[in-house]
Design brief:
The protein is α/β, with parallel strands linked by helices. The protein has one domain: Maf protein, CATH 3.90.950. It has five helices and seven strands, in the order βαβαβαββββαα. It has helices at 10-19, 44-59, 93-103, 171-177, 179-194, and strands at residues 3-5, 25-26, 63-72, 114-124, 130-141, 157-159, 164-165. Strands 2-1-3-4-5-6-7 form a seven-stranded mixed β-sheet. Helix 4 packs across helix 5 (179-194). The longest helix is centred in the N-terminal third of the chain and has 16 residues, at 44-59. It is globular and about 50 Å long.
């Protein structure tokens, strides 16, 4: 049995594939499922649960969904759950992080630009079995974008321990420290016990 990843985001799917090497995985495109779920939750966990339940019901598959975003302390946790929609529907990834950099101009010191990526992962079966974990990655918002790897806010998320933005880190390094990696690492044993039919190693 394959685990369905409830996402149409190509960058996110690449990361999840890399982080779940021992699982048989299906994507919505592979099973010809065209579904968009309104992310109306006020927390990452709530949005992940909404997506997982909807995809599991529509497909009959055990489904894993994540919701993640950027929390900037100087902006009282914004953009938070609105990270993918920050600045309105007309902006792409670059437009969103450029908007963020503009809003942080009054905060020039590194200590004022603390931030974290947060990820909630929710997995559920059509019969209601489910599990949930969260992961975070602490860092700072850089003054200028740098790097060609990753997606979303990665070019402006600076990781002090590596002296690089997330987008400057090779994928194999990012996949050891990212918020998604932390959440997946903690949910793997739960997937194994909650859904033994997946045969995840």
């Amino acid at each position: 049995m394959a685990l369905l990843l409830a996402s149409n985001n190509a960058g996110k799917l690449r990361e999840l594939h890399a982080l779940l090497p021992g699982a048989a995985i299906a994507t919505p495109a592979e099973i010809e499922l065209d579904l968009n779920v309104a992310e109306t939750g006020t927390t990452f966990a709530a949005n992940a649960a909404l997506k997982a339940h909807a995809f599991a019901k529509a497909s009959g598959h055990i489904t894993l969904a994540d919701d993640s975003g950027l929390e900037v302390d100087a902006l009282n946790g914004a953009p938070g759950v609105y990270s993918a929609r920050y600045g309105g529907p007309g902006l792409d990834d670059e437009g969103r992080y450029r908007r963020l950099l503009a809003e942080l101009k009054p905060f020039p010191q590194s200590a004022q630009r603390s931030a974290r990526f947060r990820c909630a992962i929710f997995a559920c079966a059509p019969d209601g079995r489910h599990c949930l974990t969260e992961g975070t990655c602490e860092g700072q918002i850089a003054h200028e974008p740098a790097g060609d790897h990753g997606f979303g806010y990665d070019p402006v998320f600076y990781v002090p321990a590596h002296k690089a933005t997330m987008a400057q880190l090779p994928p194999e390094v990012k996949n050891t420290l990212s918020h998604r990696a932390q959440a997946l690492e903690s949910i793997l044993p739960l997937l194994q016990t909650t859904f033994p039919e997946l045969n995840i190693e």
